[in-house]
């Protein structure tokens, strides 16, 4: 399970580099931070249950953040 967090770190790094190349600096910094966190968690060797709980917590936080941003920050298109 720890290896999957390193895989998530790899893919977030790929997304961050593409966003950085596309001049989306805030977006790329968000994904660079996620990359660092995923790699750090991947090398801490927690139990599989702990990794699953952390992943579910991450998914809930990400979906709530995405929903908040799309509903309240982006506004209604005209």
From TrEMBL:
InterPro entries found in the cross-reference section: DUF2626
Keywords (A to Z) from UniProt: Membrane, Transmembrane, Transmembrane helix
Transmembrane segments: 31-46, 53-72
Top-rank taxon, per record: Bacteria
Official protein name in the record: DUF2626 family protein
Organism annotation: Cohnella suwonensis
